[in-house]
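cron nightly-structures :: item 1 of 1
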Amino acid sequence: MHNRASDNPPTHAPSHAPEHAPLRHLPAQTTARRARSRRDIEDVLASGSALAPVFQPIVELATGRVAGYEALSRFRSATSRTVPVWFAQARRFGLGSQLQAKAIAAALAVPDRPAGRYLSFNASPSALVSADVLEQLPPRLDDLVVEITEQEQMVEGGPLLEVLAELRSRGARLAVDDTGAGYAGLQRMLAIRPDVIKLDKALVTGIQHDPAKIALVEALVRFARRTEAQICAEGIESAEELLTLADLDVVLGQGHLLGRPAEGWSEVADDAALLCRTAMTEALAGTPASHAFRGDDGDQRMERLSQWLTTVSSRDMLAQVVHPVAAMLHADLVVLSRLDALSSRLHTISPRGWAATGDSYHLADYPLTHHVMEFQEIAQVLRDDPAADPSERAVLTRMGHRSVLLLPVSCREVPLGLLEVYTRADRAWTRTEIRRARMICNQLGPIIAGLGAPLPSP
């Protein structure tokens, strides 16, 4: 009779069976398998050919050119273990640093790497502080990137950060691998302040369809800009993924679309390089991209609005600015008014043409608006803010809105009008919205002055 317990012991033994009886042979079998696994790893360490390096190109997404290569390992063995399993078992047997050191040495020994292209290799935190790995590194590391993996928890402070500082002093750049996966990504980035942040494939796959992934990559890109780092996306397998990442200002990428791991120093695939160059050509020419970007796309929408403003050639065209401005600033209503300096009155302009709607008001009746126009300062009013200007709060109540942003429009310090941006949401305006609104007003002023638009009749 087949004894199921010999290979796969059941989670719960039958109630009538003696306790632990089905498991009596398992420890010996487990010990034998562990011994075989250890011998396999020791054989790799002793062999000069059992471990071979391969190299995957890392590509500049803006140009389609190869920036560097990531060194990966391939095991020439009859066993069916995957590469991650080899390294995981080596760590369990206390041989992880030795195996990583052998992989690094093999990669560094491959000659004729093209000039100007760096080499990136992986190392765990514990391996980096070991003599096994450190002894394999040359004195100068100017063309090397050390990728710190998330295979284990990194202990803050201590020997690792000292080693990383020393490697940097010798010219190495540091990268954090598998960002977006694992358990210590944020703490690791804050501790290491990496030169390269590598996005895990799980974060890259299908990013064009996933607003949450897009938002996370946008945040990482902003972090990289502030810390003078670069973002590298791993696992790019489709044109849509590549173009979306490029739109998000991801600088570098690698994956099967761009080039598969190979024993030599390969170039980027021709069709992928052309895709990168075409997207850049479209961006330089200001023409619409050939794909649908699915993120918030604030920068691109701001660019399109700015381009549209440069084409404004009539007062009627200018009056229509309220619609794209409302979309740009996530507003429910935008009102453009023209200043009559002689009477100190603001006249509301119809969005259907440069004509007065008949609505006008004296600046003296609205102290905050008067202050905005006189001192050319931006202000916001929240309807539920007891400290806000009562007259402005009353306007919000009558209109059914809860927040307004007031922005002066001027040219050469001469006040010309007012832009009012309303929302029914009970919220303050964000800094990004305020900056974008200011940029819009900076363009509106010269346009209004250049058109010589007359004051509308009340």
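cron nightly-structures :: done
The longest strand covers residues 51-60.
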